[in-house]
Write a structure and sequence with these properties.
Layout (H helix, E strand, L loop, with lengths): L7 E9 L2 E12 L3 H10 L1 H6 L4 H5 L5 E14 L2 E21 L4 E24 L2 E14 L3 E2 L5 E2 L12 E11 L2 E10 L2 E2 L7 E2 L2 E15 L2 E11 L7 E5 L10 E4 L4 E9 L1
Antiparallel strand pairs: 1-2, 2-3, 3-4, 4-5, 5-6, 6-9, 7-8, 9-10, 10-13, 11-12, 13-14, 14-17, 15-16
């Protein structure tokens, strides 16, 4: 049975008419990755047993991940523009990690690590023409392990200072919305910085840039239908090939990280209204 207090609170203060300062704290948790550990052990049972490692040994190294997160930010507005910077800091215990054990020749989850993160986010947006709005956001996240880790077989793996897997240091988004009568067009460009697929930071996944396009039509009343809206969303407009998901889930039977191609050009149509 798992018990843990999960407090959350925040405060905002209108420092001036055009400026608000805020701060928040929250504790979160993540469940243990039981499935991947069991499947990895099953697929590599002989090697684990040869190293004197039982499934119970791996089980004991799994605990719910607990995080304490702090952030401090502000929002400044001037005319039709706003600027919103935020800084953050996080403390993690029993951090889950996908660890390669060279004595066994397999990768498996453990949640015995400690880690911390710090960084900043910036959002800027506003109206540059009567019917044209621009928005931009960027973030930096340094998320590292605090110590080396010992595998179930007893080998010490150098992890201190390594970036947590599947966590880019840099990401950004740039977009605009142009509205003409009842139609709005919103192109968006997304940037995802390079990441690592493993705790050792040896499997580097390249950065990528993807373009999306959203077109929407909205009408208060159309042929008796209230709040009518219709739209089309095109994700990955230029059909960019990139690694989207890095997985160490129960579906990866050999224990190695799984790398999955991001979605190709995908078109979604939506329509809604009230009768």
């Amino acid at each position: 049975m798992f018990r843990e207090w999960l407090p959350n609170f925040g405060i905002a203060y209108p420092f001036r008419d055009d400026m608000t300062v805020r701060g928040t704290y929250g504790r979160g948790y993540g469940r243990q990755n039981w499935g991947s550990v069991a499947s990895t052990y099953s697929a590599n049972r002989a090697r684990f047993q040869a190293a004197g490692v039982t499934l119970q040994d791996l089980w004991r190294k799994l605990s719910p991940e607990i995080s304490d997160n702090f952030d401090l930010g502000m929002r400044y507005e001037k005319g039709n523009w706003y600027v919103e910077p935020t800084v953050f800091y996080g403390i993690y215990r029993d951090k889950q990690a996908n660890i390669y054990d060279p004595d066994i020749g397999a990768t498996y989850h453990q949640s015995t690590q400690e880690a911390h993160s710090y960084g900043a986010e910036l959002s800027v947006g506003g109206k540059i023409l009567e019917n044209l709005n621009l928005f931009f956001s960027a973030s930096y996240n340094r998320f590292t392990f605090d110590k080396d880790v010992r595998t179930a077989a007893g080998k010490l793996i150098e992890a201190k200072g390594n970036q947590v897997s599947d966590c880019p240091e840099w990401s950004a988004k740039l977009g605009a919305t142009y509205k003409l009568w009842d139609i709005s067009v919103s192109p968006v460009i997304r940037y995802m910085g390079s990441r690592y697929g493993d705790m050792n930071n040896t499997q580097r996944v390249p950065a990528y840039v993807v373009a999306d396009l959203n077109i929407a039509y909205e009408k208060g009343v159309l042929y008796g239908i209230k709040d009518f809206s219709a739209g089309v969303s095109i994700a990955n407009l230029l059909n960019k090939k990139y690694i989207g998901i890095i997985s160490g889930s129960e579906y990866v039977f050999d224990g190695s990280p799984g790398y999955y191609q991001g979605a190709p050009t995908t078109v979604v149509f939506t329509i809604s209204g009230k009768f």
